[in-house]
Design a protein that fits this description.
The structure is a single chain. The chain is globular. β3 and β4 form a beta hairpin. It has two domains: 202 residues, 3-Layer(aba) Sandwich (Rossmann fold), CATH 3.40.50.300; 89 residues, Magnesium chelatase subunit I, C-Terminal domain (Helicase, Ruva Protein, domain 3), CATH 1.10.8. Strands 2-5-8-1-9 form a five-stranded parallel beta sheet. A two-stranded antiparallel sheet has the order 3-4. The two termini are 29 Å apart. By secondary structure, the chain is α/β, with parallel strands linked by helices. The longest helix is centred in the C-terminal third of the chain and has 17 residues.
Length: 307
C-alpha cells in the first residue's frame, strides 16, 4: 500500500507543476478518479480547467479526447456514426470522442439538453447504444466536464439527472499572487504538458480503484454519514435531501481521500473534506437561506455532531 500512496502523491506533485497553487483541487480530482466517478469543474473561462484535465490524463497514461460543446453539437458528434463505404459495400462505424479513457466535455452547458443527455448512458453504464448496437467504452472511463457560470450568455442549466452522475463538482478559482507570478514567468502550460511522463499505468490505476473498495468504514463512521444524509432531508437546509445513490458516492469519495492520505480506514475528517464537493451540486438550499450551495453544506456540517 505504501508504494501506491507514494505513486499517488507523485501524481499530485507532477500535476501541481502545471496547475500551480491548487493542490486541494488536484487531490479532489485524483480522489474522484480513484473512486470511479466523473468530475464537473465549474468556473469562469481561463483558470485552467482544460489544462487540469489534460495533465491528469497524460500523467496517468490514459487516452484523451476533448469535445467543445456548442449549441449545434449533436449526440452523434459525441458517440460516433455509421457511414456507408462503397469499397466495403457496408456501413462502417466511426467512433466519436466518447471512445477515450478521459473525455473532456468542455463548456458542457453551452450545448442543448439533448446533447447533454447523450452522455448519461456513457457515464453510468460505460457503454453507448448506436443503431441498436451496444458498444463498450474503454476502461477506465472518466468524464471531466467543464461548466461556465449559468449567468453567462449562451449557457443552459444541466438537468438534475445529469448533475447526479457527477461524483464531484469543484471550482479552481483565480490563483493567488505568487502562483500567478509563477504562471506569468514560467513556460507555456501546453508546452509543459508535452514534457510530462506517465506516473502510473492504466493497469495500476485500475488496481488503485479496486484498493479504494477495500478501505474500511467502521460502524460509527457509517452512523455519522447517515446522520449527515438525514440532516439534508429534514427540510431545514435543502429543498430536497440526498438520495441513497448520493450517500454511496460520498462514502466512495471519502474512501479515496483516505487512501490518498495513506490510510486503510475512513475517518470523519475524510467525510467532512469531500462532502461539499460531492453533494453541493445535488442540493438546492431552502428559499431565504441567503447562502450558496457549498456554504449551506458547510453550515450543515457544523450543525451535525460527531457520533
Amino acid at each position: 500500500m505504501q508504494s501506491l500512496v507514494t505513486q499517488l502523491r507523485g501524481l499530485a506533485d507532477q500535476i501541481s507543476t502545471i496547475i500551480v497553487g491548487k493542490r486541494p483541487q488536484i487531490e479532489d480530482s485524483i480522489a474522484c478518479l480513484l473512486a470511479g466517478g466523473h468530475l464537473l469543474i465549474e468556473d469562469v473561462p481561463g483558470v485552467g480547467k482544460t489544462t487540469l484535465a489534460h495533465a491528469l490524463a497524460v500523467s496517468l497514461g490514459l487516452s484523451f479526447s476533448r469535445t467543445q460543446f456548442t449549441a449545434d453539437l449533436m449526440p452523434s458528434d459525441l458517440t460516433g456514426v455509421s457511414i456507408y463505404e462503397r469499397g466495403r459495400e457496408a456501413f462502417v462505424f466511426h467512433p466519436g470522442p466518447v471512445f477515450a479513457q478521459v473525455l473532456l466535455a468542455d463548456e458542457i452547458n453551452r450545448a442543448g439538453p439533448k446533447t447533454q443527455s447523450a452522455l448519461l448512458e456513457a457515464m453510468e453504464e460505460h457503454q453507448v447504444t448506436i443503431d441498436g448496437q451496444t458498444r463498450k467504452l474503454p476502461e477506465p472511463f472518466f468524464v471531466i466536464a467543464t461548466q461556465n457560470p449559468t449567468d453567462q450568455l449562451g449557457t443552459y442549466p444541466l438537468p438534475e439527472s445529469q448533475l447526479d452522475r457527477f461524483l464531484m463538482c469543484i471550482t479552481l478559482g483565480y490563483p493567488d499572487r505568487a502562483s500567478e507570478r509563477a504562471l506569468l514567468a514560467g513556460v507555456d502550460r501546453r508546452e509543459a504538458i508535452a514534457e510530462l511522463r506517465a506516473v502510473m499505468t492504466p493497469v495500476e490505476l485500475q488496481a488503485a480503484q479496486r484498493q479504494v473498495l477495500q478501505v474500511h468504514a467502521a460502524e460509527p463512521l457509517l452512523d455519522y454519514l447517515q446522520a449527515l444524509i438525514a440532516e439534508t432531508r429534514n427540510g431545514r437546509w435543502f429543498a430536497e435531501g440526498l438520495s441513497p445513490r448520493a450517500g454511496i458516492a460520498v462514502l466512495r469519495a471519502a474512501k479515496a481521500r483516505a487512501l490518498l492520505d495513506g490510510r486503510d480506514y475512513v475517518a470523519p475528517d475524510d467525510l467532512q473534506a469531500v462532502l461539499p464537493q460531492t453533494v453541493a451540486h445535488r442540493l438546492m438550499p431552502v428559499a431565504g437561506s441567503g447562502r450558496g450551495r457549498r456554504e449551506q453544506v458547510r453550515a450543515m456540517l457544523e450543525a451535525v455532531a460527531l457520533p
